[in-house]
Amino acid sequence: MSRHFSHKDAPASGLAGARVVLAGFGNQGRAQAENLRDSGANLVIGLREGGPSWKLAVAEGFQVAPLAEAAAQADILMMLTPDETQAELYEAGIRPNLKPGSALGFSHGFAVGFGILDPDPETDIFLVAPKAQGLKVRKLYKAGRGAAALLAVHQDASGRAWERTLAYAEAIGCLRSGALETSLREEAISDLFGEQAVLCGGLSELIRAAFDTLVARGYDPEIAYFETLHEVKILADLIHSGGIDGMRRHISGTALWGDLSRGRRVVDAGTRERMEALLDDIESGRFAREWVEEHRSGRPRLRERLEADAAHPIESAGKRVRALMPWLKEEE
Protein backbone atom coordinates (compact mmCIF):
# COMPACT_ATOMS: atom_id res chain seq x y z
CA MET A 1 0.00 0.00 0.00
CA SER A 2 1.20 3.50 -0.83
CA ARG A 3 1.90 5.99 1.94
CA HIS A 4 -0.95 8.49 2.29
CA PHE A 5 -0.62 12.20 3.03
CA SER A 6 -3.14 14.76 4.22
CA HIS A 7 -3.35 18.35 5.42
CA LYS A 8 -1.93 17.19 8.77
CA ASP A 9 1.37 16.26 7.10
CA ALA A 10 2.01 19.74 5.70
CA PRO A 11 4.87 21.62 7.40
CA ALA A 12 3.62 24.42 9.63
CA SER A 13 5.90 26.95 7.93
CA GLY A 14 4.56 26.08 4.48
CA LEU A 15 6.46 27.87 1.71
CA ALA A 16 7.49 30.78 3.96
CA GLY A 17 10.85 32.19 2.95
CA ALA A 18 10.95 30.26 -0.33
CA ARG A 19 11.06 31.90 -3.74
CA VAL A 20 8.87 29.77 -5.99
CA VAL A 21 9.33 29.87 -9.77
CA LEU A 22 6.91 28.28 -12.20
CA ALA A 23 8.29 27.43 -15.64
CA GLY A 24 5.23 27.59 -17.86
CA PHE A 25 1.81 29.23 -17.75
CA GLY A 26 -0.40 26.79 -19.65
CA ASN A 27 -3.38 24.80 -18.42
CA GLN A 28 -1.65 23.41 -15.34
CA GLY A 29 0.79 26.29 -14.81
CA ARG A 30 -1.86 28.97 -14.73
CA ALA A 31 -4.02 27.04 -12.25
CA GLN A 32 -1.12 26.26 -9.93
CA ALA A 33 0.06 29.88 -10.11
CA GLU A 34 -3.36 31.19 -9.08
CA ASN A 35 -3.56 28.72 -6.19
CA LEU A 36 -0.03 29.54 -5.04
CA ARG A 37 -0.79 33.27 -5.11
CA ASP A 38 -3.92 32.76 -3.05
CA SER A 39 -1.84 30.72 -0.58
CA GLY A 40 0.59 33.62 -0.17
CA ALA A 41 3.59 32.16 -2.00
CA ASN A 42 6.45 34.40 -3.14
CA LEU A 43 6.00 33.64 -6.81
CA VAL A 44 7.66 34.38 -10.17
CA ILE A 45 6.59 32.98 -13.55
CA GLY A 46 9.49 32.06 -15.85
CA LEU A 47 8.61 32.32 -19.53
CA ARG A 48 9.82 33.15 -23.02
CA GLU A 49 9.86 36.93 -23.16
CA GLY A 50 7.12 38.50 -25.27
CA GLY A 51 5.19 35.29 -25.99
CA PRO A 52 1.42 34.90 -25.52
CA SER A 53 1.83 33.26 -22.11
CA TRP A 54 4.04 36.16 -20.98
CA LYS A 55 1.38 38.70 -21.96
CA LEU A 56 -1.36 36.70 -20.26
CA ALA A 57 0.59 36.27 -17.02
CA VAL A 58 1.40 39.98 -16.90
CA ALA A 59 -2.23 40.86 -17.59
CA GLU A 60 -3.26 38.69 -14.65
CA GLY A 61 -0.90 40.54 -12.32
CA PHE A 62 1.89 38.00 -11.91
CA GLN A 63 5.57 38.86 -11.65
CA VAL A 64 7.15 37.49 -14.84
CA ALA A 65 10.78 37.07 -15.88
CA PRO A 66 12.75 35.27 -18.61
CA LEU A 67 13.21 31.65 -17.56
CA ALA A 68 16.98 31.82 -17.05
CA GLU A 69 16.65 34.95 -14.91
CA ALA A 70 13.78 33.44 -12.93
CA ALA A 71 15.71 30.19 -12.37
CA ALA A 72 18.54 32.10 -10.72
CA GLN A 73 16.09 33.39 -8.09
CA ALA A 74 14.44 30.04 -7.37
CA ASP A 75 14.45 28.10 -4.14
CA ILE A 76 11.80 25.87 -5.73
CA LEU A 77 11.37 25.71 -9.49
CA MET A 78 8.34 23.83 -10.82
CA MET A 79 8.58 22.54 -14.40
CA LEU A 80 5.12 22.95 -15.91
CA THR A 81 6.04 23.14 -19.58
CA PRO A 82 5.07 20.33 -21.99
CA ASP A 83 6.94 17.05 -21.42
CA GLU A 84 8.66 17.12 -24.80
CA THR A 85 10.24 20.55 -24.17
CA GLN A 86 11.55 20.10 -20.63
CA ALA A 87 15.01 18.67 -21.34
CA GLU A 88 15.86 21.46 -23.79
CA LEU A 89 14.60 24.18 -21.45
CA TYR A 90 16.46 22.68 -18.51
CA GLU A 91 19.79 22.56 -20.34
CA ALA A 92 19.42 26.00 -21.92
CA GLY A 93 18.11 28.12 -19.06
CA ILE A 94 17.72 26.23 -15.81
CA ARG A 95 20.76 24.01 -15.21
CA PRO A 96 23.27 26.87 -15.65
CA ASN A 97 21.34 29.16 -13.30
CA LEU A 98 19.65 27.08 -10.60
CA LYS A 99 21.34 27.54 -7.22
CA PRO A 100 22.86 24.48 -5.47
CA GLY A 101 20.46 23.32 -2.79
CA SER A 102 17.39 24.42 -4.73
CA ALA A 103 14.52 22.09 -5.59
CA LEU A 104 13.26 21.16 -9.04
CA GLY A 105 9.67 19.95 -9.11
CA PHE A 106 7.46 18.30 -11.74
CA SER A 107 3.78 17.57 -12.16
CA HIS A 108 4.51 14.65 -14.47
CA GLY A 109 7.40 12.20 -14.12
CA PHE A 110 7.98 11.87 -17.89
CA ALA A 111 11.28 13.70 -18.41
CA VAL A 112 13.09 12.37 -15.32
CA GLY A 113 11.33 9.01 -15.19
CA PHE A 114 12.51 8.10 -18.69
CA GLY A 115 15.97 9.64 -18.36
CA ILE A 116 15.34 12.39 -20.92
CA LEU A 117 16.30 15.03 -18.36
CA ASP A 118 19.28 14.25 -16.12
CA PRO A 119 19.25 16.70 -13.17
CA ASP A 120 22.26 17.83 -11.16
CA PRO A 121 22.94 15.68 -8.08
CA GLU A 122 22.91 18.67 -5.70
CA THR A 123 19.30 19.53 -6.59
CA ASP A 124 16.23 18.18 -4.80
CA ILE A 125 13.92 16.49 -7.33
CA PHE A 126 10.27 16.02 -6.43
CA LEU A 127 6.84 15.36 -7.92
CA VAL A 128 3.47 16.93 -7.12
CA ALA A 129 1.08 15.56 -9.73
CA PRO A 130 -2.53 16.74 -9.30
CA LYS A 131 -4.90 14.15 -10.72
CA ALA A 132 -6.98 16.76 -12.53
CA GLN A 133 -6.66 19.17 -15.41
CA GLY A 134 -5.71 22.74 -14.59
CA LEU A 135 -9.23 24.17 -14.68
CA LYS A 136 -10.37 21.55 -12.19
CA VAL A 137 -7.31 22.14 -9.97
CA ARG A 138 -8.31 25.79 -9.74
CA LYS A 139 -12.05 25.17 -9.38
CA LEU A 140 -11.58 22.70 -6.49
CA TYR A 141 -9.18 25.07 -4.70
CA LYS A 142 -11.63 27.96 -4.94
CA ALA A 143 -14.38 25.71 -3.58
CA GLY A 144 -12.27 25.03 -0.48
CA ARG A 145 -11.39 21.53 -1.62
CA GLY A 146 -8.48 20.34 -3.72
CA ALA A 147 -7.38 17.91 -6.41
CA ALA A 148 -6.01 14.61 -5.14
CA ALA A 149 -2.37 14.11 -6.10
CA LEU A 150 0.56 11.75 -6.39
CA LEU A 151 3.75 12.80 -4.60
CA ALA A 152 7.33 11.61 -4.86
CA VAL A 153 10.87 12.54 -3.92
CA HIS A 154 13.36 11.36 -6.52
CA GLN A 155 16.45 13.04 -5.08
CA ASP A 156 16.91 14.50 -1.60
CA ALA A 157 20.10 16.52 -1.78
CA SER A 158 19.14 19.04 0.90
CA GLY A 159 17.58 16.68 3.43
CA ARG A 160 14.42 18.81 3.13
CA ALA A 161 12.95 17.47 -0.10
CA TRP A 162 9.87 15.91 1.50
CA GLU A 163 9.22 19.07 3.48
CA ARG A 164 9.30 21.09 0.26
CA THR A 165 7.12 18.57 -1.56
CA LEU A 166 4.43 18.60 1.09
CA ALA A 167 4.54 22.39 1.44
CA TYR A 168 4.05 22.81 -2.31
CA ALA A 169 1.24 20.23 -2.42
CA GLU A 170 -0.50 22.00 0.44
CA ALA A 171 -0.14 25.41 -1.23
CA ILE A 172 -1.92 24.29 -4.41
CA GLY A 173 -4.66 22.55 -2.41
CA CYS A 174 -3.81 18.90 -2.99
CA LEU A 175 -3.48 17.88 0.65
CA ARG A 176 -7.04 19.00 1.30
CA SER A 177 -8.16 15.92 -0.64
CA GLY A 178 -5.15 13.74 0.08
CA ALA A 179 -2.18 12.36 -1.76
CA LEU A 180 -0.40 9.04 -2.35
CA GLU A 181 3.33 8.38 -2.51
CA THR A 182 4.76 7.11 -5.78
CA SER A 183 7.96 7.51 -7.79
CA LEU A 184 8.53 9.66 -10.86
CA ARG A 185 8.95 6.57 -13.02
CA GLU A 186 5.88 4.80 -11.62
CA GLU A 187 3.75 7.92 -12.10
CA ALA A 188 5.01 8.42 -15.66
CA ILE A 189 4.48 4.81 -16.74
CA SER A 190 1.06 4.38 -15.13
CA ASP A 191 -0.10 7.78 -16.43
CA LEU A 192 0.93 7.05 -20.03
CA PHE A 193 -0.53 3.56 -19.91
CA GLY A 194 -3.86 4.82 -18.55
CA GLU A 195 -4.03 7.47 -21.28
CA GLN A 196 -3.17 5.07 -24.09
CA ALA A 197 -5.10 1.98 -23.02
CA VAL A 198 -8.24 3.59 -21.58
CA LEU A 199 -8.67 7.33 -21.07
CA CYS A 200 -7.67 8.70 -24.48
CA GLY A 201 -6.52 6.08 -26.99
CA GLY A 202 -8.64 3.14 -25.90
CA LEU A 203 -11.80 5.13 -25.24
CA SER A 204 -11.74 7.19 -28.43
CA GLU A 205 -11.08 4.13 -30.61
CA LEU A 206 -13.80 2.12 -28.85
CA ILE A 207 -16.31 4.94 -29.38
CA ARG A 208 -15.43 5.33 -33.07
CA ALA A 209 -15.54 1.56 -33.66
CA ALA A 210 -18.99 1.28 -32.04
CA PHE A 211 -20.26 4.33 -33.99
CA ASP A 212 -18.95 2.88 -37.28
CA THR A 213 -20.56 -0.50 -36.55
CA LEU A 214 -24.01 1.04 -36.06
CA VAL A 215 -23.76 3.37 -39.06
CA ALA A 216 -22.54 0.57 -41.33
CA ARG A 217 -25.72 -1.36 -40.46
CA GLY A 218 -27.85 1.60 -41.53
CA TYR A 219 -28.52 3.30 -38.19
CA ASP A 220 -28.77 7.08 -38.14
CA PRO A 221 -25.38 8.73 -37.35
CA GLU A 222 -26.95 11.14 -34.85
CA ILE A 223 -28.63 8.27 -32.98
CA ALA A 224 -25.33 6.37 -33.05
CA TYR A 225 -23.55 9.43 -31.64
CA PHE A 226 -26.00 9.63 -28.74
CA GLU A 227 -25.66 5.95 -27.86
CA THR A 228 -21.89 5.53 -28.25
CA LEU A 229 -20.42 8.92 -27.28
CA HIS A 230 -22.87 11.33 -25.66
CA GLU A 231 -23.78 9.02 -22.79
CA VAL A 232 -20.14 8.30 -21.89
CA LYS A 233 -20.19 11.21 -19.45
CA ILE A 234 -23.15 9.79 -17.53
CA LEU A 235 -21.38 6.49 -16.96
CA ALA A 236 -17.98 8.11 -16.37
CA ASP A 237 -19.47 10.30 -13.64
CA LEU A 238 -21.00 7.23 -11.95
CA ILE A 239 -17.69 5.36 -12.13
CA HIS A 240 -15.79 8.40 -10.87
CA SER A 241 -17.97 8.72 -7.78
CA GLY A 242 -18.57 5.07 -6.97
CA GLY A 243 -16.22 2.85 -8.95
CA ILE A 244 -17.37 0.17 -11.39
CA ASP A 245 -19.49 -1.53 -8.73
CA GLY A 246 -21.13 1.79 -7.83
CA MET A 247 -21.95 2.47 -11.48
CA ARG A 248 -23.56 -0.96 -11.79
CA ARG A 249 -25.89 -0.21 -8.90
CA HIS A 250 -27.31 2.78 -10.83
CA ILE A 251 -27.97 1.29 -14.27
CA SER A 252 -30.91 -0.75 -15.49
CA GLY A 253 -31.01 -4.52 -15.20
CA THR A 254 -30.84 -4.75 -18.99
CA ALA A 255 -27.69 -2.61 -19.10
CA LEU A 256 -26.19 -4.56 -16.21
CA TRP A 257 -26.71 -7.94 -17.87
CA GLY A 258 -25.29 -6.58 -21.13
CA ASP A 259 -22.26 -5.31 -19.20
CA LEU A 260 -21.62 -8.60 -17.41
CA SER A 261 -22.40 -10.96 -20.29
CA ARG A 262 -20.98 -9.06 -23.28
CA GLY A 263 -18.18 -6.75 -22.13
CA ARG A 264 -15.56 -9.50 -22.19
CA ARG A 265 -16.38 -10.23 -25.82
CA VAL A 266 -15.06 -6.79 -26.70
CA VAL A 267 -12.18 -6.62 -24.24
CA ASP A 268 -10.94 -10.18 -24.55
CA ALA A 269 -7.64 -12.00 -24.05
CA GLY A 270 -6.31 -10.49 -27.28
CA THR A 271 -7.03 -6.98 -26.01
CA ARG A 272 -5.19 -7.74 -22.80
CA GLU A 273 -2.19 -9.03 -24.76
CA ARG A 274 -2.10 -5.82 -26.78
CA MET A 275 -2.25 -3.83 -23.52
CA GLU A 276 0.81 -5.76 -22.34
CA ALA A 277 2.58 -4.72 -25.55
CA LEU A 278 1.60 -1.08 -24.93
CA LEU A 279 3.05 -1.31 -21.44
CA ASP A 280 6.26 -2.85 -22.83
CA ASP A 281 6.62 0.13 -25.18
CA ILE A 282 6.19 2.56 -22.30
CA GLU A 283 8.42 0.77 -19.77
CA SER A 284 11.25 0.39 -22.29
CA GLY A 285 11.20 4.13 -23.05
CA ARG A 286 10.34 3.53 -26.72
CA PHE A 287 7.18 5.62 -26.56
CA ALA A 288 8.94 8.50 -24.77
CA ARG A 289 11.79 8.57 -27.30
CA GLU A 290 9.34 8.33 -30.20
CA TRP A 291 7.28 11.27 -28.90
CA VAL A 292 10.29 13.50 -28.26
CA GLU A 293 11.62 12.75 -31.76
CA GLU A 294 8.18 13.42 -33.29
CA HIS A 295 8.14 16.81 -31.55
CA ARG A 296 11.67 17.67 -32.68
CA SER A 297 10.86 16.79 -36.30
CA GLY A 298 7.88 19.17 -36.39
CA ARG A 299 5.09 16.69 -35.48
CA PRO A 300 4.19 15.63 -39.07
CA ARG A 301 2.61 12.27 -38.13
CA LEU A 302 0.66 13.81 -35.25
CA ARG A 303 -0.83 16.46 -37.55
CA GLU A 304 -1.66 13.92 -40.26
CA ARG A 305 -3.48 11.59 -37.87
CA LEU A 306 -5.27 14.45 -36.10
CA GLU A 307 -6.57 15.82 -39.40
CA ALA A 308 -7.75 12.38 -40.51
CA ASP A 309 -9.64 11.76 -37.27
CA ALA A 310 -11.19 15.25 -37.35
CA ALA A 311 -12.76 14.29 -40.69
CA HIS A 312 -14.42 11.17 -39.26
CA PRO A 313 -18.25 11.19 -39.62
CA ILE A 314 -18.70 11.03 -35.83
CA GLU A 315 -17.42 14.62 -35.63
CA SER A 316 -20.01 16.05 -38.01
CA ALA A 317 -22.78 14.02 -36.34
CA GLY A 318 -21.58 15.32 -32.98
CA LYS A 319 -21.73 18.95 -34.09
CA ARG A 320 -25.35 18.52 -35.13
CA VAL A 321 -26.30 16.80 -31.89
CA ARG A 322 -24.46 19.28 -29.66
CA ALA A 323 -26.17 22.18 -31.45
CA LEU A 324 -29.38 20.94 -29.81
CA MET A 325 -27.81 21.47 -26.39
CA PRO A 326 -26.17 24.93 -26.34
CA TRP A 327 -25.55 24.66 -22.58
CA LEU A 328 -22.75 22.17 -23.29
CA LYS A 329 -20.62 25.13 -24.44
CA GLU A 330 -21.09 26.75 -21.04
CA GLU A 331 -20.01 23.55 -19.27
CA GLU A 332 -16.90 23.39 -21.45
What is the helix content? 55-70%
Beta-strand content: 5-15%
What general form does the structure show? Answer: globular
Specify the number of helices.
Answer: 18
Feature tags:
single chain, 332 residues, alpha/beta, nine-stranded mixed β-sheet, 18 helices
What can you tell me about this protein's structure?
The longest helix is centred in the C-terminal third of the chain and has 17 residues, at 232-248. It contains 18 helices and nine strands. With 332 residues, the protein is an alpha/beta fold.
Summarize the helices and strands and which ones pair or pack.
Layout: E1 4-5, E2 19-23, H1 27-38, E3 42-47, H2 52-59, E4 64-66, H3 67-73, E5 76-79, H4 86-94, E6 103-106, H5 110-113, E7 124-130, H6 134-142, E8 149-155, H7 161-171, H8 174-177, E9 179-181, H9 184-199, H10 201-216, H11 221-230, H12 232-248, H13 253-266, H14 269-283, H15 286-296, H16 300-310, H17 313-322, H18 327-331
Parallel strand pairs: 2-3, 2-5, 3-4, 5-6, 6-7, 8-9
Antiparallel strand pairs: 1-9, 7-8
Helix pairs in contact: 1-6, 9-10, 9-14, 10-11, 11-17
